[in-house]
Amino acid sequence: MLADQWTESRFITTTRQAFLHARQLLDALSKIEDGHLDTIDSIINQLMQKSCVEKADLSQSQLRTKVGEHVATLLLAKIDKHVTNLCVAIKEDLEECQRLADAATRCYNCLAEGYGAIDRNGLLHERLKRRTPKRPSIFEMCSWLDDVLTTCRQEVTERRELLARLALVRTEEAIEMLKHSKYCWKRPPSVVQRMNTYIAFTWHFIGKQNDQFQSALVQ
C-alpha cells in the first residue's frame, strides 16, 4: 500500500480491528484455561489406567476368558481412543486461538507496513506518536498489541507442543508431563492483568463507541 493511501483514520481502524481479534483471542485462551483443566485430569486418569494395563499380567484374568487372548490390546486401544478424543477437543480450541492470532497478526503486519511507508518527518507520523498523560499514542497501543500477540502465540505453541509430545513418550513420562503442565496451565495473574489492561485501555480510546479519538489526536 502506498504512503498516500495511509491516513490517520486507516491507522485507527486497523488498530481497532487488531485489538478486536486480540480481545477475542484472550477470551478463547481463557476458555481453554478454565474449560480444559478437567480435560487434562481426564487424560491423566486414562493414562494411569493404560499404565496399569501395560504392567498387568492378564494371562489368568477373567477378561481374557470372556474377550480373548488379546484383551490387553483391546483395552489399550480403547484407552488410546479416549485419550485421542480428549486431545482433539483441546486441539480444536487451540486451532481457533491460532486463527484469531493469525488475524490479529495480519493487522499488526499491515500497521507495520503503513509505518514503514509514511514519512517519518511528516505530520501524520508526528500525530501517531503523540501521547498525553491521559491518552496513549497509536504507536504505544501497537507496542501493547505486540506484547499481547507474542505472549498468546507462545502459550498456544507450548500447548500444541505438549499434546504432540504425548504420543512420542512412554506412558509414565506422559503422565508426569501432564501433571507438571497443570501447575502452569493458567497464566500468572500478573500476565492476565497486563493483557486485559492493554485491551481495556485501547478499547476505551479507539473502540467504536469513541468516535472522538481521531479529532483528539490532532489537538
Would you write up a description of this structure?
The structure is a single chain. The chain has one domain (3-210). The chain has 219 residues and is mostly helical. Helix 1 packs parallel to helix 6, helix 2 (37-55) runs antiparallel to helix 4 (71-117) and helix 4 runs antiparallel to helix 6 (138-166). The chain is built from 9 helices and no strands. It has helices spanning 8-35, 37-55, 62-67, 71-117, 123-129, 138-166, 171-183, 189-206, 213-217. Helices cover 79% and strands 0% of the residues. The model is unreliable at 211-219 (pLDDT under 50). This is Protein toll. It holds the Pfam family CA109-like.
Would you spell out the secondary-structure blueprint of this structure?
Elements: H1 8-35, H2 37-55, H3 62-67, H4 71-117, H5 123-129, H6 138-166, H7 171-183, H8 189-206, H9 213-217
Helix pairs in contact: 1-4, 1-6, 1-8, 2-4, 2-7, 4-6, 6-8
Pfam family, one: CA109-like
Protein name: Protein toll
Organism: Trichuris trichiura (Whipworm)
